[in-house]
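Structure ticket #2291
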Amino acid sequence: MTPRSIRMLAATAAALLATTVLAACGGDSESGGATKLRLGYFPNITHAPALVGVQNNIFKDKLGDISLETTTFNAGPSAIEALFSGAIDATYIGPNPAINGWAESKGTALHIIAGTTSGGAALVVKPEINSVQDLRGKKIATPQLGNTQDVALRYWLKQQGLNTDTTGGGDVSITPTPNSEIITGYGSGALDGAWVPEPHLSRLILEHGAKVLKDEKEEWPGGEFVTTHLIVSKKFLDANPDAVKKLLEGHLAAVDYVNANRDAAATAANEHIRSLSGSALKDDILAASFANLTFTVDPIAPSLYGSARHAEEVGLLDPVDLAGIYHLGPLNELLKAAGKPEVSGEGTAS
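Resolution: structure written out below.
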């Protein structure tokens, strides 16, 4: 069974489970309005607006009478499974897991309702590696097979004339490895490099002397590409549009706070990471990571369509129609009311 078949089987099982889950709409009251909203996010600096929004009670204040329940995840597929099963109503997540969730549910399970973060991913390697051709025979890690960085690396290598496969063979051996183990593996010499997001990118550079061979922003127009966005269960959205609007109000307020108070936001995000994991990022890692990220509600749709095409070209995604994946009406209503530019879900796969 191929990795894609395994993922599809797991997703199908999750989708079937979702049909048996009762009260999967965030604790709806008898009148049909949500009494709680269950929000997912990652204890990762690329999810800074979520971290700050929870830490500083921004979501709680905007939700009002709707109680907030939070769940953290370490990988996109587990967050998608939770959304499918009705365990959460919305989650911050990377682009490729959202694409996979849309494809596996045939567009019935979720919508992207806002952007969150752009940038902050690159291929870093040992100092003696100076060109893409030096990667032949080397072992390069990504966080997970089929995740956003994994797709980016495989596609970039293919464009350079280097082949890979899902078993670690080919011209370059790609080894999907959890982020924490990537740091250890690189430090021990077991890995020659990794395509990773922040803060793991800055950790490899500052703590282990790795150097950037390819910054992903060089691959996208204007250097902008989606790293994290906010998705919501279609079932929850259809049943509770007012609750989703309040969530978006909290999201907008969190992004605005992060951009207006970068130092304070970085501190708040780091404190929340400490509360979740027991340890915070070192000051230099925190500063470098934050400086390498842009926080925006613009979903940067062209990069999502591009990522889907890239996943198709490297054999990690069957062709998928993404029409309808964005639901930006509520966000644009809030932006318009605030006198801010509206955003678009239009894009191209080229």
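Closing remark: Residues 241-260 form the longest helix (20 residues).
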